[in-house]
Amino acid sequence: MSVSVSRRYIGQPVPRVDAPAKVTGSAQYVGDLEVPGVEHAALVRSSIAHGRIRAISADSAMAAPGVTRVITAADLSAVVSTNRFGPVVRDCPLLAEDVVRYEGEPIVVVLGRTAAAAQRAANLIDVEYDDLTVVRDVDDAVSSDAPRLHRDAAAGEFGAGASGWDPTRNIAGQYHDRRGDPAGAMAGADRVFEHTYRVPTIHHYAIENHVALAIPDGDAMTLHAANQYPFLMVRLIADLLDIPESSVRVVVPFVGGAFGSKEYASILPLTAAVARLVGRPVRMEYSIEESFRTLVRHAAVMTYRTATTLEGDIVARQVELRFDGGAYADQSPRVVRQAGYRSPGPYRIPNLQVDAYAYYTNKVPAGAYRGFGASQPIYACESHTDEIASELGLDPVEFRMRHLLNLRDDFSVGDLPLDCDLPEALRVAAEELRRPTPHPVGDVRLRGVGFAVGVKNTASGHLPSSAIIRLHGDGSATVLSSSVEIGQGTITMLTQVAAEALALDPSRVRVSTPDTALTPFDQRTSSSRSTVHMGLAVQRAAEDAVRQTVDAAARVLDCRAGDLRLEAGRIVGGDRVLTVRDVVADPRSGFGGEIIGVGHFVPDSPRAPTAFGLRAGYWEGSVGAAEVAVDSETGQIELLRYVTVADAGTVINPLTAHGQEEGGAVMGMGHVLFEECVFEEGIFMNPSIVDYRVPSIADVPRALTSHLLERGDGPGPFGSKGLGESSIITVAPAIANAVAAATGVRVRELPLSPWTVWRSLRDTKDGRGAD
Amino acid sequence: MSESAMMVRTTVNGEPVAVEAEVSETLAAYLRDRLRLTGLKVSCGLQICGACTVLLDDRAVSACTVLAVEADGASVRTVEGLADQQQLSALQRAFVKRGALQCGFCTPGFLMAATELLERVEEPDEATIRRWLSGNICRCTGYRSIVEAIQEAASERSGKRHANER
Questions:
Q1: Mean pLDDT of A274-298
Q2: Is A285 a catalytic residue?
Q3: Which helix (H) or strand (E) holds A639?
Q4: What average pLDDT is seen over chain A?
Q5: How large a percentage of chain A has pLDDT more than 90?
Q6: What's the CA gap between A426 and A432, in Å, rounded?
Q7: Which of A419, A324, A401, A340 lies closest to A374, judged by CA?
Q8: Inter-CA distances, B84 with A618, A705, B80, Å
Q9: Is residue B164's pLDDT more than 70?
Q10: Cβ atoms within 10 A of the Cβ of A656, count?
Q11: Residue A324: which region, alpha, beta or left (left: phi > 0; alpha: psi -120 to 50)?
């Protein structure tokens, strides 16, 4: 078999295949679907952070105009096998039964003929509580007086990660690692540096709020969902409703942003259960305030201790992470394991100790968020690295270069060696910021430059990705894949991979969005895995289709398959040309209609003998570099320049790749400059876009550049790797380091609001801004 | 017609439309649910994010906080009206070419706000573009590609204008 390997489409800035639909308004999202007879669900949510439900008064709601049903947990028990779900531990009820554990927890569903009628009626429902002591944060959670928020729970779909679950200590998950003799090395060290950093809870704020549409059909159920893991939802819903998986269909059209907020179940189990109960289509769509109250990113308190020689060689590191997991475990056990594993940073550290915990608190559950536990420890590690360099009088770039792991060094013995060239990335970033931005006349603001380096492993375990390619009679192709288009450009990337492998123009390739009745299994669309995992599945499916086509043509032409090739949808060889239709129509081919190619990718050796336990398929690594100007009178930070350098393997599409890198960088700017979910006594003070500020077009530096290093050495199609979570993980420390360099003062918490920066300058005699 | 409904007569994307609306109904709900123009999206519901931006008498408004009845007698333009038959507008083409969108949920709002900008300002500089679009939030792109797309559409249009003037 021969297929052209000229790389016509790989590496090309092919315009997004979904762009025409998105710029004309014809792109469909779940909220755009119209279903006749659908009923709308509104939720009554807990107004307190922790308490026992004493009474629910729903009479006026039930009598309200347009209301069809009022539903509590007791009503749902008629149709669900359990009122508990959760990916690692099933600790989360669909609707609260006796206890509420966070302000905003769903208690009652009101169904109405219109969304407005349902919401008006929901506002009439009164819930009375007996207050319980609120566990406000990780400090409360660890205290021996604090209430224990959970007792027993069954294992969820990823229950293997539950080994660290310890409800007697309010621990949702934990991770530990030891290497060498960290305590001994600390005790005997010349210098020991210790710093503690804090980051607040933040929210994904995808522009599309959570939404689901459940349509029952007898015992079967179809769900239209904005969700990143349709096949897990099939399993979860089938289990919940006690129906076969073949009776559950999950359809995911375009998703308006996810960033992890739609990675697990959120709104889906409840919508499905309600639809099952009433036997009619049900639509549940959250307001933005409700999306804030559904999932957040972990706040963290992180302590780093590093021992060095007098010359500044690192001999030992101890890390303690305390993550705030909120009221239910969700993905916290998995997030904290990843956070702990990545926390030492990509450095040569002979003696290491990591202890990481995720705690239960009475707040919105924390779960998957772009980076999946990478951003928080990298912020702490890279800030700590700069502080050590500063105290030793060493240049922060040179200090890093001395200790950075090189390409193919071991991050952790037994895992895939590092496939990122971090020293090179740091060199590129440093070179970009070598010349400072000129000061305009009269601009007396403090200037500084900062760098940060970080890596995250993409370790997807043993679950496969599968793809089907249907080669039609006219030589065009349909690709069936369950990768979700959340904006990252997956559909376009798969189009290019299929086009290249089929030697077919991309305009004649159409990639589906997930429909579990039709598209084969994929695991979650997350962790930057789709280019490698689904890309390889699609490439293999294409190769399978090509081989079958060429073999069939060889039978028709009575020649050797090796003399033929597929080119632009036709089979050519010497002076012979056949269309696919010619081939499939001929009885000698053995086919009729179309040719179906199937491809699978299953990671081999998914396990690793490391504390983390899973082997990386590849590493995402980045360097972030920032130049800032700080106004010492107001504490205002202006980002003058931002550079991100990522290790990309082979870039399939530079337009979408740079888009993801820039988008991740700007999203990260929000974390360091503005974003903070504020809780007081467990009450969420700012769950709205008015009081929670995300970067606007005016906040972005004009000089925002992304570099992609390519060596073609990734495991994915054509040497590719994953991208999308690379730039975001180094933004916070790069900017924090730049601010510290500018002001001479180190703030060890985020966000770096003007008030925080101004106050730090006033509080520090050494700060250059002090009077 | 119910007691709380009113007839609303507008021109939507150049076509006369006469469809009743509840008095409390937003223009966003009217356009999306009654007229099935689902391009505009409702996200924050508080006129902050701009995802529901449409042009009402050629001015950009947040349809989530305008009542449908306020559009009575006015013209409404949505993203569905930007293309001329199958021909995308210069702005739409520039967005596609520059990759100025990812998940696409904010895109209709940006296109309408940018359409207003290009109709009101001949050759907006970058600072003007950023100021004008600061009422539209994007969580995916980082905005640089959006600014470039608007600049490209602006130059294409003024290039055409200069060509026509010769």
A1: 97
A2: no
A3: strand A637-649
A4: 94
A5: 87
A6: 10
A7: A340
A8: 46, 35, 10
A9: no
A10: 25
A11: beta
Which residues make Cβ contacts (< 8 Å) with residue A551, sequence separation at least 6?
A: A1, A561
The answer to whether B19 touches B30, Cβ cutoff 8 Å, is yes
| Catalytic-labelled residue, pool A311, A500, A725, A749 | A725
For residue A5, pLDDT beyond 70:
no
ipTM, interface predicted TM-score of the complex: 0.97
Q: Which DSSP string do the residues of A51-116 spell out, in sequence order?
A: EEEEEEE-HHHHTSTTEEEEE-HHHHTTT-S-SEE-SSEE-EESS-SSEE-STT-EEEEEEESSHH
pLDDT band at residue A766, thresholds of 50, 70 and 90?
low
Question: Can you tell me which residue has the tokens 């096998």?
Answer: A81
Out of A25, A486, A696, the one facing B137 most closely (by C-beta) is A696
Q: What is the pTM of this model?
A: 0.96
Q: How many residues does chain A have?
A: 771
Mean pLDDT over all residues of chain B?
94
| Smallest Cα distance from A290 to chain B, Å | 11
Put simply, the chain B residues between 82 and 101 with a CB less than 8 A from any chain A CB are 82-83, 88, 92, 95-99, 101
Q: Output the six-digit token pair for A160.
A: 């293997």
Residue range B21-44, pLDDT digits in tens: 999 999 999 999 999 999 999 999
- Type and span of the H or E element at A540: helix A530-557
- pLDDT reading at A3 higher than 70: no
Q: Which residues pair with B59 in a beta bridge?
A: B56
* C-alpha triplet A383, A385, A386: angle, nearest 5°: 65
Beta strand A106-112 pairing with A67-71: antiparallel
Residue A457 φ then ψ, to 5°: -90, 145
A29: helix, strand or coil: strand
pLDDT exceeds cutoff 80 at A769: no
Angstrom distance (rounded) from CA A115 to CA A61:
14
Q: Which two tokens stand for residue A92?
A: 């989360």
Q: Give buried/exposed letters for A479-492 (b at 16+ CB in 10 A, else e).
A: bbbbbbbbbbbbbb
Q: How confident is the model at residue A171 (pLDDT cuts 50, 70, 90)?
A: very high
Amino acid of residue A700: V
Tokens of residue B24, six digits: 């409390």
* Binary contact (A663, B126; C-beta < 8 A): no
Tokens representing A240?
């919940």
The closest CB to that of A256, out of B36, B41, B147, belongs to B41
Q: Among all residues of chain A, which has the CA nearest to that of B136?
A: A696
Please give the Cα distance from A747 to A760 (Å, whole number): 7
pLDDT (0 to 100) of residue B2: 64
So what's the pLDDT on residue A421? 97
Confidence (pLDDT) at A445: 95
Please, are residues A684 and A621 in contact by the beta-carbon 8 Å criterion?
Answer: no
Determine whether the interchain pair B139/A208 forms a contact, defined as Cβ–Cβ distance below 8 Å.
Answer: no
Share of chain B above pLDDT 90, in %: 89
Q: How is residue A579 written in tokens?
A: 């269309």
Cβ-based neighbours of B21, under 8 Å, separated by 6 or more: B5, B6, B8, B30, B34, B68, B69
Q: Is A9 helix (H, G, I), strand (E, B) or coil?
A: coil
Measured between CA atoms, how close is A51 to chain B, in angstroms? 30
Angle at A616 between CA A613 and CA A621, to 5 degrees: 125
Q: Give the span between the Cα atoms of A455 and A371, in whole angstroms.
A: 10
Residue A583 has pLDDT above 90, yes or no: no
By DSSP bridging, strand A282-285 and strand A39-45 are parallel
Query: Is residue A770 pLDDT above 50, yes or no?
Result: no
> Of A583, A636, A623, whose CA–CA distance to A709 is shortest?
A623
Residue type, A282: V
The whole-number pLDDT of residue A765 equals: 57
